[in-house]
Automatic annotation (TrEMBL):
<feature type="region of interest" description="Disordered">
    <location>
        <begin position="40"/>
        <end position="62"/>
    </location>
</feature>
<keyword id="KW-0479">Metal-binding</keyword>
<keyword id="KW-0067">ATP-binding</keyword>
<feature type="binding site">
    <location>
        <position position="17"/>
    </location>
    <ligand>
        <name>ATP</name>
    </ligand>
</feature>
<comment type="similarity">
    <text>Belongs to the acetokinase family.</text>
</comment>
<keyword id="KW-0460">Magnesium</keyword>
<comment type="pathway">
    <text>Metabolic intermediate biosynthesis; acetyl-CoA biosynthesis; acetyl-CoA from acetate: step 1/2.</text>
</comment>
<dbReference type="InterPro" id="IPR043129">
    <property type="entry name" value="ATPase_NBD"/>
</dbReference>
<comment type="subunit">
    <text>Homodimer.</text>
</comment>
<dbReference type="InterPro" id="IPR000890">
    <property type="entry name" value="Aliphatic_acid_kin_short-chain"/>
</dbReference>
<keyword id="KW-0547">Nucleotide-binding</keyword>
<feature type="binding site">
    <location>
        <position position="10"/>
    </location>
    <ligand>
        <name>Mg(2+)</name>
    </ligand>
</feature>
<keyword id="KW-0808">Transferase</keyword>
<feature type="binding site">
    <location>
        <begin position="209"/>
        <end position="213"/>
    </location>
    <ligand>
        <name>ATP</name>
    </ligand>
</feature>
<dbReference type="GO" id="GO:0016301">
    <property type="term" value="F:kinase activity"/>
</dbReference>
<dbReference type="Pfam" id="PF00871">
    <property type="entry name" value="Acetate_kinase"/>
</dbReference>
<keyword id="KW-0963">Cytoplasm</keyword>
Amino acid sequence: MRATRVLVLNSGSSSVKYQLLDMADGSRPATGLIERIGERTSRLRHTPAGRPSREREEPVADHETALKAVAEELDRDGLGLDSPELAAIGHRVVHGGRRFTEPTVIDDAVLAEIERLVPVAPLHNPANLAGIRTAVALAPHLPQVAVFDTAFHTTMPEYAARYAIDTAVADAHRVRRYGFHGTSHAYVSRKAAELLGRKPSETNVIVLHLGNGASASAVARGRCVDTSMGLTPLEGLVMGTRSGDVDPAVVFHLTRVAGMSVDEIDVLLNKRSGLLGLCGDNDMREVLRRMEHGPDAEAARLAFDVYVHRLRKYIGAYHAVLGRVDVVAFTAGVGENAAPVREAAVTGLEGLGLAVDPERNAARGDGPRLISPPTARVAVAVIPTDEELEIATQTYALVTGRTTDET
Ligand code: ADP
């Protein structure tokens, strides 16, 4: 039997998400999620294709226990880690620094390098590592691949990756712009080119990944040349709970004037800012609803306006970076679903050739679709992202030497 399946694992700090993908036919034999790892009760939801989900609530102390539970659930459906159809395990790893420019087969040296990057990704890399170590122990016979969120951005020119600070300090502490969500930016920029019937290597794309976290990227002929997140996923666009760009002096000011500690300001900017900080809601659905009906519509409107103003500035900036833009692609929870955000983001940018067609923008749909008028100079598109598929595709190509088309 040919091994055509890839198990994709996304080990976060308190959750593990997983999908089993079959690269031969594009099916997903199982998907699932364990939440609240380390809390008193954790919840596992496992969904085998075409059958009802199974849920379990029990304490799951750590990633080791979590992955054992995932392996057990897969086993119950005959999809376990020993299954001859399983070709590899692909792991999402948030920070790959400068060294990991491509998906990489995991060995001890790779684990050591991911560990070395913990100081620049203290929230993410330890959880990713815990997931990888357990998966390697559970399935030592399988090739395991790390796919890095930062990899797609390693093509940024040095002048886009550098902060204008003392080079010696920056180099000593690896302070530079890395960018995140790279797997999504890679996938969406490629799909956007395909939607236009063009080769990615001949297409310039601005990708707007708007989920709970949000980032923009400028992709020139298939290569990332700039992105809005930096040393950490805090820089750039306004997000659900993160501020995005602020004057760094805000930190000094709050330290001196408000007596806040660095840790308190870290929490403020990462967890109590963005839409949540501006209006009390981090979910764009709620913000849009309150703008229409709420007693405090004004705060919701201001949050929306700040969010959209930042977005518009980045679209303009990336136009300048790229020189010529073929398509602006919206993706992730807000980008795929919130028509008012898409419309507002391009309003006023007619001079750059940007517009949305109100009917196309309002129409619901599952797949990649154009929302600009047929005559528009620059295409505007909605491209649903699929990070699991991209991780599986990259993993499969690396371990088999085959692309999905050849399977
Ligand atoms: P993550 O960054 O966690 O992967 P998603 O890409 O799933 O997140 O995006 C989640 C966010 O998408 C939600 O917090 C919500 O703000 C937004 N969202 C989802 N559906 C809609 C919708 N129908 N309208 C507006 N916003 C939506």
